[in-house]
Amino acid sequence: VNGLPESTKAVVSTQSTGRLSMEQKHVSEALKEKKLAEGALKTSFFGNWKPDNDSAAHHYERAGQFFKLGKSYTESRSCYLEAAKYYGAGRVLFSAGKCYEAASLCARELSRFDEAHQFLERAGDYYTQNGTASTAVSCYSKGAEALAAHLPEKAAELYLRAGDLERDSEHTREAIKCFLGAKKIFARNKLYKECISAVLATRELYEKMEHFEHIRKCNMALVILHLARGDSVAAKQSISGDVSMAADELITAVENGDDEEIRKLCSHGDIVYLDTEIAKIAKFLTPDGAVNVPAAKGAKTASSTTKNTTSIFKSAGTRPGANSQKNELFSRPNRQNRDELFARSKPSEDNNKSELFSRPQNNRDNLFSRQPAPQPAPQPEAPVQEKSELSSNPFDTPAQETQATDTVLEGDSGNPFTEPESGNPFGEEDDLEDLC
């Protein structure tokens, strides 16, 4: 136990006590995998006569993964390196590159940026030998972004490597993106000579694509970079290509040391629309080169952003009036305060009742003593005829009505569908004959 690292000692000491945390569980699994890898490398007379490099590499890679989940980056890095060694011996190049890329991530977590850069280069070499150039480009690009703040020169070199691979694969647009990333890093860190080489590589690709507007921008950037180095002769030579008239005026103003003319030319459209890093250099040009160019600022942290946001909310203050309650709640960016505001502003029956009963007594009396709605006037009833005492049965009919019905029934034959006796419904027979 004394020879084990601190994280492994913690696992061994807590295994006897009972419950383990998630990180300690991952570390215990990693120790098992590491033991299996060591067992695969052992040889014996009755067992393996040769070490099993493939099984050892597999178990070392899994051990590195578990150590990384348990945040034991030192052990994870060593396991990944062992796995990469055995994968390389077995010519499993892609897996070896993956292990070196994972080892570089662990080295970055341990703030060993030089080692991380070396591991990234080895990973890219293995990917290239395996024939997967796209994976190598992705590895170089991600590594360059991670190392740009700590090792800018080496990060730009990774971008250049990625650009060369994309150019060889005839992926022109992707190669331009890689070269532009290298150019920005070089310009931020005042590495003008390396920046010129990156701009030349970019201009060459634009010439193949026949993008003349971008070619003019590259020529203008070359003029500014040569003047930043104090080499006006090289700046004049770069004017031989397609470049604006502002370039010639800028060279003359720099040679004469005319600061006012340089400031006017810096607001020219051909300079303003260049990359921000190049346009910034033009403002500080002198006959001896670019002087007092401000250093590149690092990325903003999350804490600074939170402080600025909080200050913006607090600067609102509280105002008297109807919106004072709302301003008070929104002066602090708190989700609970916002929910409270929306709960207050939402209409409900309880709010309406409280509003009614919060009025003075007189208003409540007036509210509940409302007059009822006016009723419609009653319509006059029709006079009811008095029935005679003789008609005691309501179903009896009057005498006149009975006489009328008797006369109708006398003329009726009993069948409503029978024809008249004459047999001619249209008239007499004599009239019929005349018509025929």
Which terms would index this structure?
single chain; 436 residues; mainly alpha; two-stranded antiparallel sheet; 23 helices; 2 strands; 1% strand; extended
Topology as H/E string? HHHHHHHHHHHHHHHHEEHHHHHHH
The unreliable regions are: 14-18, 298-322, 329-333, 385-392, 399-413
Overall geometric form: extended
Strand order of the largest sheet: 1-2
Structural class: mainly alpha
* Relative helix content: 55-70%
Helix-strand layout with pairing:
Layout: H1 6-15, H2 22-41, H3 53-69, H4 73-89, H5 93-109, H6 113-130, H7 133-147, H8 152-168, H9 172-188, H10 192-209, H11 212-228, H12 232-237, H13 245-256, H14 259-266, H15 269-272, H16 276-282, E1 285-286, E2 289-290, H17 302-315, H18 324-330, H19 335-345, H20 349-357, H21 361-368, H22 399-411, H23 429-435
Antiparallel strand pairs: 1-2
Helix pairs in contact: 1-2, 2-3, 3-4, 4-5, 5-6, 6-7, 7-8, 8-9, 9-10, 10-11, 11-16, 13-14, 18-19
Structure description:
This protein has 436 residues and is mostly helical. 66% of the residues lie in helices and 1% in strands. The protein contains 23 helices and two strands. It has a two-stranded antiparallel ribbon. A hairpin with a 2-residue loop joins strand 1 and strand 2. Helix 10 runs antiparallel to helix 11. About 13% of the residues have low confidence.
In short:
This protein is mostly helical. It has 23 helices and 2 strands.
